[in-house]
Amino acid sequence: MSFLLYVIPAFGFIKGFNQAWFKTSYSAQWLDGYYDKNYSESILLLNKNAGSTLVRMWLYEGAQLNQFGTNKRTGKLVLRPDFILNLKHFLGLARKHKIKVNLTFLDGNSFRGVEQNPELMNFWSNIFNDHNGALKSFYQSAIAPIYKLIEDEFSDVVTQIDLANEVNAIVEYRLFKDHVISMPKFLCTLAARSPSPVTASLGWANAEELFFSGFLANSCLNFYDLHFYNDTGTVGRCEDYKKLSKQGVRLQLGEFGQLSPTLSDELQSEVTANFLKTAKNCGFMSALPWRLVEWRGGGDPEERFSYVNPEGPRKAYYIFRDFAR
Questions:
Q1: d(CA 227, CA 253)
Q2: Do 232 and 274 contact (CB within 8 A), yes or no?
Q3: Residue 69 and residue 12: Cα distance in Å, rounded?
Q4: All domains of the chain, ordered by start, with CATH?
Q5: Of residues 109, 229, 87, 101, the one with CA closest to residue 165
Q6: How far apart are CA 304 and CA 172, in angstroms?
């Protein structure tokens, strides 16, 4: 099994954070009425003060594509103007605070249950399987404008592109008719002419197994991004990752966190310290915990992941800050 080699400039071990979306505005965060300039800057300052130099943000999370309108003349998708303006504002702030950005296009997990909406299912199936020119059209409407924005104004800020968060979820939800053929074609089409290094991340419990099975073979990726959730802060095949890293394969621990549903400062701190140490020792170029601010109120179980609560940073935030790069 072979992996694509890609030279990414080495600046030591990189610490970053997942933010993904702001507050509870999943699928709408870049739209007027949801995007908050002051709040977005506070997120970047929290990154900066923790010694983070990379933040991961999502663009088209949600299968409904609320980020788009329709061209009345052609009937094709067009990005909403406020989406672009607000994204530009955030990237400008990131430059100001010297934070690099990972932009993630799709969220594979958002396609769960999409088959219950036949119209939406047909729309995405045409894109994922390149029927009737739908994939090319999607690239022109959703991907090319972002690449142009990066190339024209933010090539120094956007240093990573994730084409699809946990792309294996799209396979699990049976959107690809034959993923061995259609998934690499889909990813290579989206990766074409990217001004930044690209990946398509793997998640769920079988991420490691899929990675070493060659699941992402021939997918035009520049680096590989794996997600791990457990209560030990370890990965299974450390020596194999080390070997790949020495061969020039670039690896990122793109999400990590505890598996237990318990809201515990001690557990989060231990898991954070162990995952950072594991990632660095096993040859990963970077590691990003999930999730910087995940406070929803009302005892939502997702709050266990948050590194900041309404009173301020939790203990694990400082563990992250003090971890030597």
A1: 6
A2: yes
A3: 42
A4: 14-322 (3.20.20.80)
A5: 109
A6: 26
Task: Note the pTM of the prediction, 2 decimals.
Answer: 0.95
> Helix %, strand %, coil % for the chain, to 5?
40, 20, 40
The one-digit pLDDT tens for each residue of the chain (325 residues) are: 445 544 454 558 999 999 999 999 999 999 999 999 999 999 999 999 999 999 999 999 999 989 999 888 888 889 999 999 999 999 999 999 999 999 999 999 999 999 999 999 999 999 999 999 999 999 999 999 999 999 999 999 999 999 999 999 999 999 999 999 999 999 999 999 999 999 999 999 999 999 999 999 999 999 999 999 999 999 999 999 999 999 999 999 999 999 999 999 999 999 999 999 999 999 999 999 999 999 887 788 999 999 999 999 999 999 999 998 7
187 torsion bin: left (phi>0), alpha (psi -120 to 50), beta (else): alpha
